[in-house]
Amino acid sequence: MEATTQKIELSVTVNGTRYERAIEPRMLLSDFLRHEIELTGTHVGCEHGVCGACSVLMDGEPVRSCLMFAVQTQGREIVTVEGLGTVDALSPVQQAFHEAHGLQCGFCTPGILTTVTAFLETNPNPSEEEVREAISGNLCRCTGYQHIVDAVLLAAKKKQAS
Fold first, then answer.
1. What fold is seen in the domain 92-161?
2. Which end of the chain has fewer CB atoms at under 10 Å, N or C?
């Protein structure tokens, strides 16, 4: 006889839209985002919270969605890479990454963009060293990070000018 898991009602706001779902208590936030509400911009890399590819914002703070249960977001505000901007209206961070060639394959980019967005809210005029520290939890296997750092510094300038 197979045991059944009781589902839990979840109500969470993601990118400004309220979602209500009955989910298994052990469902990860990354799985909820990708499979339940079909926002596939959040990438899952290491599944151990090391690489940062799955980073999203919860109430404005970066969190690793592969380490959180979706039920932990009950009543919270989540922002994924899809919520940062649109193709027609990129956020200053997205625009700077485009202009400064701050991405290559793009796998790590969603996590870096969300992390950097939160970082620039608390540190609008960072030094290169502060940028490197801020992105140190996001691994990129394609670059030497210099273009990413340049993109963050450019984003800071763009945000100050707006």
1. DNA polymerase; domain 1 (1.10.150)
2. N
